[in-house]
Amino acid sequence: MNRSQKEFLAQYRRRRRIVNVWRCLLLLLFVGAWEGSTMTGLLDPFIFSSPSRILSSFISMLKDRSILYHMGITLSETFISFFLVILIGILLAIVLWWNSTLAKILEPYLVVLNSLPKTALAPVFIVWLGNNMKTILVAAVSVAVFGTTITLYSSFQSMDEDKIKLIRTLGGSKKDILWKLILPGNIPAIISVMKVNIGLTLVGVIIGEFLAAKAGLGYLIVYGSQVFKLDFVLLSIVILCFISTALYLLISLLEKICTRHYQ
Amino acid sequence: MDMLLTVNDLAYSYHSLSGETQVLDGISFSIQQGEFVAIVGPSGCGKSTLLSLICRLLTPDSGEILLEEGKKVGYMLQKDHLLDWRTTEKNVALGMEINHQLTEQTYLQIDYMLNNYGLVGFRKARPDELSGGMRQRAALIRTLLLEPDLLLLDEPFSALDYQTRLSVSDDIWKILQKENKTALLITHDISEAISMADRILVFSRRPAAIKKEIPVILTCPNGRTPFHARSAPEFKEYFNLVWKELNDDE
What we know:
The complex is a heterodimer of chains A (263) and B (250). Chain A is mainly α.
């Protein structure tokens, strides 16, 4: 290895170290400042909670397993609505791709539904569906499904015309174009949609739980703020940070596995 | 004489909101079994449309395309269009897969073809691991596996760099010769047309009509291949002839 390459590598490592150290430092500083200011009475721990109080309520809720229960509810609702969104989104996109006249007819409706803030619909869902998990799932699905459909449909449509021609010259039907070309060719697009949706459905689930739930982290947040147990609220938020990061990493891993062979 | 393909007084127009564009007008020609015919013409003159019509992807406005009873047409596009997510083997098998022809027997045939055309070591490779020439050969095998009697070549070398192009066109010409295939090549490269074809049809600007038909007879003491053809004494004359035909309507 010559000198300039060594220098380059050394500089690269130095930079990476700086980034890592500062990342950790920033977190420590934030947590430390929070803890410190509540200890010295600068902030009221009753309103702002504190890292130590969050930790102790986490441990006590871990002991009676209630936090695991709330996490489990929120996670399973997120997964169910996530899979529903992906499934419905892909199916709708296929239907639109198959029938371009229908796609043209539905286009303005999809645009309106996609840009409508879905939180506005949540109260309606409660009235229609009741104060239960159905409402939460429908709310979560409605947040993400229209965007998913539109994104996938336009991605299906951007398939290279010549590749479609190839399938047709080989004697393929529209069904062959779908199965041999559109679906396998859009796996990267489907995964990138998944990446967006795992976060979106979590948002939808929390909104749903705010309004119509007896359990879950969203419920815990609302309940905590109503009874002034801010420890519960902030604990839930911290857990949500971890959950959303973990889910995102999960999909990123899936992406790495599935899109190795795509350019 | 028995003709593999006969095209009679073919006309075709494209329609759009801004109006009708006539692409082909009164095209008539025929191709014999085993012949290699090249079509040259200005770009955008509707050569590719003609191939789509012969392949029945489009329906002509008038005129007819007669293919000898029971004969099949294969189409080779400008780019190889190998699918990124398939291995060479699976890419090559695509046509058979679509036609539900995949059996133990056909896998042997695929093996044989890959072996013959220098791709056997790349059976499990992805398209991005193949060179431009190898990709084009894989695309050809994909077409040939369906056993077409008439092969339509739509500028199949134009996406390659010059050097690869010369060797790939030589390769593919030899493969077609060996398999005794009839071919219709579309190109805008005059030298390519002369070096490969037995007969050249010169198309006019849109709406395309056949301006001239030129049989190519070259003296090649070492046997005719596209490569040797380029050094034949008559090559330059043919080049000038085609060049003149292409350019004298302005």
